[in-house]
Design a protein that fits this description.
Shape: globular
Mean pLDDT: 83
Strand order of the largest sheet: 5-4-3-6-7-10-8-9-11-12-13-15-14
Distance between the termini: 49 Å
Number of strands: 22
Helix content: 25-40%
Low-confidence stretches: 2-8, 70-99, 358-384
Largest sheet: 13 strands, mixed
Structural class: alpha+beta
Number of helices: 24
Oligomer: single chain
């Protein structure tokens, strides 16, 4: 339910922070402006309905109430389903469709995508030492950034002119840090001087928040900052200012007319241009980070003065990006080393300090042990922090971000995995628990026979990465040694033999895992099986099941797809010698006693999706259309079922557990992905699978 917010208490509490009292209290929020802008990116009536529901019930229940029509809809208009892993179609656009009414699904998806950004603001990771104390967040919107900043700062004042957005923020109960965030209705120019200067000022000056004069805006923000404080600015680069990113559909739309001064803007809004301009504004130290594809939801954060991180980004983009990202990366590759790349980044984070000699760990003059809290409930302060290396290329994932740390010679030295928010801390602990249990079980003992008769197979325990757990300001942070080999995703191809080989390698490893650690198969009652396939929050109820099904419990990876499986051999070079599996990474969705179909089901569906460009396209090409792909799927799935002692009927019946597992794990952790647009996409994927289940059963030979 919403937090109490009486007008009198809001005015009294907030006015103490500033030298001038508010001119009004609107919707319980202290106001210093008459400007009331509409909420950005969401229908005002939808937001009003949601806000009214939040007055009587928790946020997640209020979302279910608001969007109950789309959750219950059974119409279908076809189209591609959303996807895991890449989470988008081959053309870079998010795809919707399947069992929901397309219009209802699109409306719900858009609303949740606007309100909640799953892996928001990964740029906080490399600059955490510049965030702390009293924080001002300018152009805060619906407040996710403010809530995340409050996990690092003592308090956050969230400023915006969108009163409805601030009202939503005031009622949010999905972050334990919410009681340290105060919404403030004001313009940056109308906000009065604080009673005590801020230690950190964060301002979104990109996209629709782009000011007419950067110098005047920065000058006003600096007036609120303590002499030893930090000013963090989110800024657009020339490709966004000039409309280039809109033309190629890269990142969020700029929602504004392109700036025609392309040459001058390229000079003024590149790396050196921003450094010179901000230095002239009085900052002794200016550190810039490139944000790709935009500042709203950057998938990569790159220190612009780190050639190793830039090189690794370019290498990753060429081998693993979407079609559009590969084109951009290819163009950037030609620019790297010429100075042109400095002017081609689409967005930036600028970290500015007046006191350039201050130590980042205490530049606010505060005790870190007093402002750092590591418990997911926002409780006690941490008393033994260490700081793992977060200097390098930051790539964001669903529940956490990964920092690729390099040695002096440019080789990959380590991988640091940082939770996006404290509620995601349990994912890291789940990973550590699951991997420890697997590693410690007779490490060098031979596995049972898989589906491949290959003597080179590496025992499963030796394919589990090793690492260390450290408590940081973001919560439990896991650092592991780099995986040996190359991602199996590099071998994905429409060549039928390579397609079959990828499936065989993945399923062979799963047979050996499940045979080593799984329980003996037993008959599960229809009621038990149906419970495995149910997620009522999104209206997901399984069809009737008449007979018991033979299944078992087993350790479950939870995100088992070719990008997380590493193999020996030149997977990217078209070599026929691919394998064996050398490592399986990213166990944050792991479970020591899961449903056996969660991993093989996801692996075959994700392999087909990646090869054929979408979930439904993959089902059509690899399951229901006769040919070499369907033959490979039928053979490999059949070999798997025979090896672990279950029927193919069990595999088909439990196929929706692929996404039910994710929905349940995220809901149990209170993760953003349990109520964001990603949850809508996953729930719809369940419906898509159920729509095709009969055809899949026929293709796999289930009578």
């Amino acid at each position: 339910m919403s937090r109490p917010n009486e007008p009198e208490s809001a005015a009294e509490t907030t006015s103490n922070r500033f030298r001038e009292p508010p001119i009004a209290v609107r919707d319980g929020i202290a106001s210093w402006t008459t400007t009331v802008d509409p909420p950005g990116g969401i229908d005002a009536d939808t937001l009003s309905t949601l806000r009214a529901a939040m007055a009587d019930e928790p946020l997640r229940d209020a979302l279910a109430t608001t969007f109950s029509g789309s959750a219950a809809s059974e119409g279908t208009d076809g189209g591609e389903s959303g996807t895991e892993g890449g989470e988008s179609g081959t053309d870079g656009t998010k795809r919707l469709g399947g069992a929901l009414s397309r219009s209802a699904l699109a409306a719900e998806y858009a609303a949740r995508d606007t309100l909640f950004v799953d892996p928001a603001d990964a740029w906080r990771i490399p600059v955490a030492d510049s965030i702390g104390g009293r924080c001002l967040d300018v152009n805060a919107g619906f407040g996710t950034r403010s809530l995340l900043l409050a996990e690092l700062a003592t308090t956050v004042d969230a400023v915006d002119t969108e009163l409805a957005s601030l009202s939503f923020l005031a009622a949010r109960d999905d972050y334990a840090s919410a009681d340290r965030v105060t919404p403030i209705h004001a313009e940056p120019t109308s906000l009065p001087a604080p009673s005590t200067p801020y230690d950190t000022v964060v301002a979104d000056l990109a996209g629709r928040h782009r000011p007419d004069s950067l110098a005047a805006t920065v000058d006003g923000l600096t007036d609120h900052l303590s002499p030893s404080g930090a000013l963090l600015l989110l800024l657009d680069g020339w490709p966004r200012l000039g409309g280039v990113t809109d033309a190629i559909d890269l990142g969020e739309p700029t929602r504004g007319a392109p700036d025609g001064r392309s040459i001058s803007q390229a000079l003024r809004t590149g790396v050196r241009g921003y450094e010179r301009r901000l230095s002239r504004m009085g900052f002794d130290e200016v550190d810039l980070y490139a944000l790709v594809p935009d500042s709203t939801d950057p998938s990569s954060v790159i220190p612009v003065d780190d050639p190793g991180a830039i090189r690794r980004l370019l290498d990753t983009g060429l081998s693993d990006g979407t079609t559009v990202q590969r084109l951009i990366t290819l163009a950037a590759s030609g620019a790297h080393g010429t100075g042109v790349l400095d002017r081609c980044w689409p967005a930036y984070l600028a970290v500015c300090h007046v006191d350039g000699d201050a130590d980042g760990s205490d530049r606010h003059g505060i005790d870190r042990d007093e402002i750092v809290r590591h418990r997911s409930d926002g409780g006690s302060a941490d008393d033994g922090l260490a700081v793992p290396d977060t200097n390098g290329l930051v790539t964001r994932g669903g529940g956490r971000s990964t920092v690729l740390v390099e040695d002096a010679d440019g080789s990959l030295a380590g991988v640091t995995k940082v939770p996006h928010r404290r509620a995601h801390a349990e994912f890291t602990l789940d990973e550590v628990r699951t991997m420890r249990e697997l590693r410690e079980s007779e490490r060098d003992a031979p596995d049972s026979q898989g589906i491949l008769d290959e003597a080179t197979s590496i025992p499963v325990p030796r394919t589990i990465p090793e690492g260390s757990l450290t408590m940081t300001r973001f919560g439990p942070t896991y650092s592991e040694t780099p995986a040996r080999g190359a991602p199996l995703s590099g071998a994905l191809s429409r060549d039928p033999e390579r397609f079959r080989r990828v499936l065989e390698l993945g399923f062979d490893w799963l047979v050996r895992l499940q045979s080593r650690y799984g329980t003996e198969p037993a008959n599960w009652s229809p009621a038990v099986v149906r419970d495995e396939l149910r997620f009522p929050e999104f209206g997901l109820e399984p069809p009737s099941i008449d007979d018991p099904i033979r299944l078992f419990k087993t350790p479950c990876h939870g995100d088992f797809h070719p990008k997380n499986v590493f193999v020996d051999g030149n997977a990217d070079g078209g070599s026929d010698e691919i394998g064996p599996v050398t490592a399986v990474i990213d166990w944050e969705l792991g479970d020591t006693a899961g449903n056996p179909i969660a991993d093989p089901g996801f692996f075959v569906l994700q392999t087909a999706r990646l090869v054929f460009g979408g979930l439904e396209a993959g089902i059509d090409a690899a399951f229901t259309t006769p040919g070499p792909y369907a033959d490979a799927v039928r053979d490999v799935v059949g070999d798997y079922c025979d090896a672990v002692g279950i029927e193919r009927r069990a595999f088909v019946t439990c196929l929706p557990v692929v996404w039910i597992h994710r929905l349940r794990r995220c809901a149990a952790r209170g993760a953003t992905a349990s109520y964001s647009a990603r949850a809508v996409r996953r729930a719809n994927d369940v419906r898509v699978i159920r729509d095709h289940q009969s055809a899949i059963a026929t293709a796999l030979g289930v009578e």
